[in-house]
Amino acid sequence: MFITTHTACGCIPSVTSTTTVNPCGDCLRVPGLILDCVDSVGPCGGVGQIDLSTFNNGDTFCGGAVEYTLISFDDTAFVTSPTINLTTGVLDFITTSAAVPNSYPVITYQVHCVDQIEAAQGSIQICIQDQCQNVVCPAGQACDECDGICKDISDIEVS
């Protein structure tokens, strides 16, 4: 999985394309993340999951006691509310039929040290995969954005 991290927390900002986190030392580091289209899901009920705990230093900085909370999300791109497991940091999301291919809707979350006052917010931009990329349909057909299959134009639902 390719996720780009953008880090800052009073530390020197840097951009990396790795899944390893080098703690800033004296701060809780919760970076902004971008999930690349090739590793993401399409619209219309695409189901995705990301372990946010692998992208912050909460376990080491907080001494292991960390809680995750959902702050906000793009309700046009994601069905109901994405969920974050309070203790593991696993984010689950489902896309809507209104999610636009190649767009990057945002989910914002918080990491909180249970036994300390420290907390930090992070966000993840999740690319909506274009199911029709590189699909060429014959005359009278169009690619259905929900499944990437060529269908008669009259058979494709308009969202």
Q: What's the arrangement of strands in the largest beta sheet?
A: 2-1-3-9-8-5
Number of helices: 1
CATH architecture of the largest domain: Sandwich
Level-1 CATH class name of the largest domain: Mainly Beta
Overall number of structural domains: 2
In the CATH hierarchy, the third-tier topology of the largest domain is known as Immunoglobulin-like
Query: In terms of structural class, how would the helical and strand content be classed?
Result: mainly beta
How far is it from the N-terminal to the C-terminal residue, by CA?
29 Å
Identify low-pLDDT runs.
Answer: 6-19
Summarize the biggest pleated sheet: 6 strands, mixed
According to DSSP, the number of beta strands is 11
Q: What is the radius of gyration?
A: 18 Å
In short:
The protein has 159 residues and is mainly β.
How does this structure look, described?
With 159 residues, the chain is mostly beta strands. It has two domains: 3-128, Immunoglobulin-like (Sandwich); 132-159, no CATH class. Helices cover 3% and strands 34% of the residues. The strands form three sheets. The chain has a six-stranded mixed β-sheet. A hairpin with a 5-residue loop joins strand 8 (106-113) and strand 9 (119-126). The two termini are 29 Å apart. The relative contact order is 0.21.
Describe how the helices and strands are arranged.
Layout: E1 3-7, E2 14-16, E3 32-35, E4 47-51, H1 58-61, E5 66-73, E6 83-84, E7 90-94, E8 106-113, E9 119-126, E10 141-143, E11 150-152
Parallel strand pairs: 3-9
Antiparallel strand pairs: 1-2, 1-3, 4-7, 5-8, 6-7, 8-9, 10-11
